[in-house]
Structure to design on (467 residues):
């Protein structure tokens, strides 16, 4: 636990200045225990652990029996993850100072970090019994913070709930309680705690920010956006608030506003692939595929293996007839995920548009090998064969496939399409009924692709009866 010198500030500053001069010249001089504590606290507070260690080592050479310096040494050992050595020091101290709460607190922290929960809780309980009333709030925060950091959220929550009434306005304790509720998916309780914090101080940007996160988890995006707007008003340089606001805006379909928020985020932080990817997604939702492609490309430039950006770049480039980029993106994505039927299908369609039938057929075959019951891969293969192979005869091709697999719904959709085109309404309807039974989710998209099916009275009657 971090301690601060309560002595004369001028004396502490002079001790630090003298210590700096000595170590710069690789010399040592005498300091009393209070001065060593002040020097240690100064560096420890600034997280300058090397100098804190030099100071405490010097102090223990000069005052080897000082329990206060040994206690600070144990704190340093904990932060250096040397838990076994810290336990040796503390086990020695607890025999000398049986009523020193900080000894038990530090032991509790060690066993928390070692994930020995039973021992940790036992030492924390001893520390709480021994600590003075003035320091109790600080101990409750320190214990709950360490429990939360090591994923003991239930234990942190129980401790904080038990002491909440004693410290109803303690920011640190309330923040730790809200954090525990969040991690335990008790979102409504977490929101209540953040609102208590904001009743105490409505200008706590962290409370507004975290409140936005919890509203997002509840899919209350309008409330989340409002919370982020207030966060930004209080702390306009808090870049993550712009990012989270942008995500919430995208969730409610406010894509232009989301793009503006992402742009604000980028102005305050380093550009990341995921940010450009989300901006591309917003432009794609606005049907601006050229700008979508631009931002997906920027995402891929930063992170070449960002598979979602690669897939989206391929898709958007295809829409603007930039088939070369589309092939590049889908090909790169397949290096990462070679078993994706959708990627093989998309790559095959891109090659087809580039008038590269050999590669198109190769990719369409791979799509079908990886996912034999993909309706749209079969439709694409059928269309390809019909357009590129002069000797292709659809019905014998179909019968051969169905002879091998009568339970494949995708083939029955294909049969309905082929028989419809051959004006065989009876067979088209028979296969469509079977297809719908086997793969009901594909029906609407097949009808969108082949509206001529619905023009057949028998099929139209059947479909209307099912709806």
């Amino acid at each position: 636990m971090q301690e601060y010198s309560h002595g004369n500030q001028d004396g502490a500053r002079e001790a630090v200045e003298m210590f700096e001069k000595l170590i710069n010249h690789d010399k040592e001089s005498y300091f009393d225990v209070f001065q060593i504590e002040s020097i240690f606290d100064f560096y420890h507070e600034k997280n300058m652990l090397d100098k804190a260690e030099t100071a405490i080592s010097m102090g223990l050479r000069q005052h080897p029996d000082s329990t206060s310096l040994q206690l600070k040494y144990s704190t340093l050992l904990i932060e250096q993850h040397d838990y076994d050595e810290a336990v040796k020091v503390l086990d020695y101290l607890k025999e000398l100072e049986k009523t020193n709460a900080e000894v038990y607190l530090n032991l509790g922290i060690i066993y928390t970090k070692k994930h020995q929960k039973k021992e940790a809780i036992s030492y924390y309980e001893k520390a709480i019994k021994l600590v003075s009333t003035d320091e109790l709030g600080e101990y409750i925060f320190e214990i709950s913070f360490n429990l939360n950091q090591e994923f003991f959220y239930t234990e942190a929550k129980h401790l904080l709930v038990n002491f909440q009434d004693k410290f109803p306005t303690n920011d640190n304790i309330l923040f730790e309680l809200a954090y525990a509720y969040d991690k335990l998916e008790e979102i409504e309780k977490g929101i209540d705690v953040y609102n208590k914090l904001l009743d105490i101080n409505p200008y706590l940007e962290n409370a507004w920010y975290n409140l936005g996160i919890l509203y997002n988890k509840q899919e209350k995006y309008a409330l989340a956006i409002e919370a982020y707007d207030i966060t930004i008003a209080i702390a306009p340089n808090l870049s993550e608030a712009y990012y989270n606001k942008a995500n919430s805006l995208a969730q409610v379909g406010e894509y232009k506003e989301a793009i503006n928020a992402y742009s604000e985020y980028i102005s305050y932080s380093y550009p990341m692939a995921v940010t450009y990817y989300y901006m591309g997604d917003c432009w794609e939702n606005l049907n601006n595929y050229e700008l979508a492609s631009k931002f997906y490309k920027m995402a891929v430039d930063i992170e070449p293996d960002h598979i979602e950006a690669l897939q989206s770049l391929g898709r958007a480039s295809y829409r603007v007839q930039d088939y070369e980029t589309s092939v590049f993106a889908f090909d790169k994505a397949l290096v990462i995920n070679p078993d994706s039927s959708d990627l093989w299908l998309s790559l095959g369609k891109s090659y087809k548009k580039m008038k590269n039938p050999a590669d198109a057929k190769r990719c369409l075959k791979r799509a079908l090998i990886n996912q034999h019951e993909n309706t749209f891969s079969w439709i694409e293969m059928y269309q390809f064969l019909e357009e590129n192979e002069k000797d292709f005869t659809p019905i014998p091709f179909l019968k051969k496939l169905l002879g091998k697999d009568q339970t494949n719904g995708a083939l029955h959709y294909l049969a309905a399409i082929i028989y419809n085109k051959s004006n065989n309404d009876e067979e088209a309807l028979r296969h469509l009924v079977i297809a719908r039974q086997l793969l009901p989710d594909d029906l609407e998209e097949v009808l969108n692709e082949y509206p001529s099916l619905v023009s057949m009275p028998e099929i139209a009657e059947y479909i209307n009866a099912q709806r």
In short: DSSP finds 27 helices and no strands in the chain.
